[in-house]
Amino acid sequence: MHCLIGEQIIAIIVLLTISTHRKSPAVLSKNEWDACGKPLGTWDALWVVRLALDIWLSVWRWSRERTKRLQDER
Fold it and tell me: Fewer CB atoms near the end CB (10 Å): N or C, the chain?
């Protein structure tokens, strides 16, 4: 699970970097970010929120399981 989180962080950074620096094949005077008719910023923001929630839930689950394990050892 933690490997997937790291890969997602890298993917978000790479996609944002590529889309803002690469020329659009459809509109040569713009980069891909500006030429795209879809709200890329909104989609990336949602992806970041989803990733943050995933990280928080992973930590919460680990903490809950650790607490249970420590109580069972007593």
Answer: C
Paired with 31 in beta bridges are: 23
Which amino acid is present at 48? Answer: V
d(CA 41, CA 47): 10
> Which residues pair with residue 23 across a beta bridge?
31
Asked if residue 54 lies in contact with residue 6, where contact means CB atoms within 8 angstroms, the answer is no
**Residue pLDDT, tens place only, 24-56:** 888 888 888 788 788 877 887 788 888 889 889
Short-list 45, 46, 49, CA closest to 57: 49
Domain ranges of the chain: 2-73
- Tokens at residue 71, please? 């109580």
3-state secondary structure of 23: strand
